[in-house]
Amino acid sequence: MILGRSERGKPPVEPVTLKILVAGGFGVGKTTLVGAVSEIRPLRTEELLTEAGRPVDDTSGVEAKNTTTVAMDFGRITLREDLVLYLFGTPGQERFWFMWDELSEGALGAVVLVDTRRLEDCFAAIDYFERRSIPFLVGVNCFEGAARYPVGDIRQALDLDDHVPLLMCDARDRESVKEVLVGVVQHAMAQAAQHRQTVTT
């Protein structure tokens, strides 16, 4: 007897795969964020910080940090049966920024991770995505011991456009990071829909 589709169950779903970048300054928690949610063992390209790099690697505020990402972090998370995100963490130091153009190719959107103790470190990432019209969300990584500021004050300090989402998060916490990633996808899709509407009118 040949089983009907209803008896065999639903046909397998072919998931949509989306690419999301995780950017921000040196030591802001990008590698931690990718590792917190990835359902596969994250690919990391970290190297030990050396004395030779001390003049160019500003570790003030993150003195305990002893490694740095030199190419990218990579992870994967299934948000729904039909939606998979590939996460690419960008290197934070200026001398590795040449990697950003390649990593951003085909990206739906980005998370710019921020540490309120070193806000100026994220300006380059915000500028990068604004110039290339890549939708992004700002995630404020709430480090222990860091002062807490109202969202409006942080938005003003970063000079963010009103349409750019800003969320408080904990890069170590899976559920907190998932909220940020869902926010990026929703924001990017809303931007795409708005763009399509502008083009057709």
From TrEMBL:
<dbReference type="InterPro" id="IPR004130">
    <property type="entry name" value="Gpn"/>
</dbReference>
<dbReference type="InterPro" id="IPR052705">
    <property type="entry name" value="Gliding_Motility_GTPase"/>
</dbReference>
<comment type="similarity">
    <text>Belongs to the GPN-loop GTPase family.</text>
</comment>
<protein>
    <submittedName>
        <fullName>ATP/GTP-binding protein</fullName>
    </submittedName>
</protein>
<keyword id="KW-0342">GTP-binding</keyword>
<keyword id="KW-0378">Hydrolase</keyword>
<dbReference type="Pfam" id="PF03029">
    <property type="entry name" value="ATP_bind_1"/>
</dbReference>
<dbReference type="InterPro" id="IPR027417">
    <property type="entry name" value="P-loop_NTPase"/>
</dbReference>
<keyword id="KW-0547">Nucleotide-binding</keyword>
